[in-house]
Amino acid sequence: MTVIVTAFERSPDRGRGLARDMRVRWALEEVGQPYEVRLLSFEAMKEPAHLALHPFGQIPTYEEGDLALFESGPIVFHIAERHAGLLPDDANARARAITWMFAALNTVEPPIFDRDLARILEREQPWHEQRLRVLEDSIRKRLAGLSSRLGDADWLDGAFSAGDLLMVTVLRRLHGSSLLGEHPNLSAYVARGEARPAYQRAFDAQLAVFTAASTG
Questions:
Q1: In this structure, what are the phi and psi dihedrals at residue 39, rounded to the nearest 5 degrees?
Q2: What is the CATH number of the domain that holds 156?
Q3: Are 143 and 47 in the same domain?
Q4: How remote is the C-alpha of 149 from its chain's centroid?
Q5: Are the CB atoms for 206 and 25 separated by under 8 Å?
Q6: Could you read off the pLDDT of 156-210 as tens digits, one per residue?
Q7: Per-residue pLDDT tens over the stretch 141-157
Q8: Would you report the helix, strand and coil content of the chain in percent, each value rounded to 5?
Q9: pLDDT number for residue 48
Q10: From CA 196, how far away is CA 212, in angstroms rounded?
Q11: Is 132 in the same domain as 190?
Q12: Do both 191 and 205 map to the same domain?
């Protein structure tokens, strides 16, 4: 059965690999599973056909035969459970890798994503600078804990896992800010993730969509 992933027809990230279908593409590339991509306009994302797959009208979704999933975290988890390469065989190590998946999406990502939204949508508000300071203080606390736990290791818990895949995609949103640069081991950690051949294939595939949309 062919896997079908939905993605933006014209991604607001301008091909920087920040749209959340990148996580799913990367996971599929890591485990060597072929997939097809169905591109959606913002209008199509709100139509009944897509809302039947994703009740909140977002991307990505994942279809495989009779199975339809939405939200990047559960989709990556499903891929990792079905195919070798993203979760350890040892039960305890597997549980720790899953813990890091949740930590990436539930603890580290929220203030980082909110900072992005505040910088785009709230810049004209009188409380904008105060809001940014609060969010960046929260991000610094998260990064300090993460940096301390990572130390000089290559990955969060032994071999590369789905936990690292999600954490790297979350931290990439801080490219261009001084926040990530305050922790050289985290900058190097992100660079290691980006250097993986599977990441490169996924990034190139997503960038090609934006390039085609921009020149079409």
A1: -85, 140
A2: 1.20.1050.10
A3: no
A4: 21
A5: yes
A6: 999 999 999 999 999 999 988 899 999 999 999 999 999 999 999 999 999 998 8
A7: 999 999 999 999 999 99
A8: 60, 10, 30
A9: 98
A10: 24
A11: yes
A12: no
Domain count, the chain: 2
Q: What is the CATH number of the domain that holds 32?
A: 3.40.30.10
**Same domain for 189 and 95?**
yes
Q: Which domain holds residue 76?
A: 3-85+198-215
pLDDT tens digit sequence for 35-68: 999 999 999 999 999 999 999 999 999 999 999 9
pLDDT band at 113 (very low <50, low <70, confident <90, very high): very high
Query: pTM for this one?
Result: 0.94
Question: Considering just the CA atoms, what is the radius of gyration of the chain in Å?
Answer: 17
What string of H, E and C letters represents the secondary structure of 152-171? CCCCCCCCCCHHHHHHHHHH
DSSP string, 29-76: HHHT--EEEEEE-TTGGGSHHHHTT-TTS-S-EEEETTEEEESHHHHH
